[in-house]
Amino acid sequence: MDARQMLEQLCRERGQDYASLSRLIGRNSAYIQQFIRRGTPRRLPEIERRLLARHFGVAEQMLGADANPAPTSGLVPVTLLDLTVSAGPGTVAGSEQPVAQIGFDPAWLNRLTAAGADELNLVQVEGDSMAPTLLPGDDILVDRSDGEARVRDGIYVLRIEDNLMVKRLTLHPVTRRVTVQSDNPAYADWPDLTLTDINLIGRVIWTGRRVA
User: Fold this and answer.
1) Is 68 contained in some domain?
2) Rama region for 74: left / alpha / beta (φ>0; ψ in -120 to 50; rest)
3) What CA–CA distance (Å, rounded) separates 116 from 120?
4) 95 and 139 co-located in one domain
5) With a threshold of 0.85, does the pTM exceed it?
6) Other Cβ atoms closer than 10 A to 38
7) Taken in order 66, 70, 75, 80, is the CA torsion positive or negative?
8) Which tens digit of pLDDT belongs to each residue from 148-170?
9) Which of 32, 44, 52, 58 is least enclosed by beta carbons within 10 angstroms?
């Protein structure tokens, strides 16, 4: 099944109309219909393919991405996972499978972290408890090498029981107990926890978002 057939099937199964889907990716209302019915454009541009894949919760390869994309020359490839972390009460969402590789300039990346590409991942934020710092739909870069051994004040992806979330941690300098905080004051904090109460996945070191 090619990308057009797959997109047509997804629309039919999910009850999506072409015009709404076109507007979702910032195109005119006939864009998706022209792609499916007329073959224009011949191939979905990367940013539109990525938005559609996330919307439907499928791998980009199902919509025409290369099965084994070659790393971008001169750039450090960081894997984007099919994973959503909650900036709310906590959820587990996605298959945790690779969706794409995003290239970062090595000199720029080295200013953020000394971690290798295999210790970095991009995931997406869901919920508003970390607003205005992090908003729903933001992509965050998580350094998995920077966890419990070096914990300090900052924003982390963490797991409490079965709930995967992104929160701000504040560390007491004497007791080494932590408070799990939301930047949005509408959400309550979880004070006076031990590091054994939580499973730190990694530190959030960068975020990117689409400007509407």
Assistant:
1) no
2) left
3) 7
4) yes
5) no
6) 10
7) positive
8) 888 899 999 998 877 889 999 99
9) 58
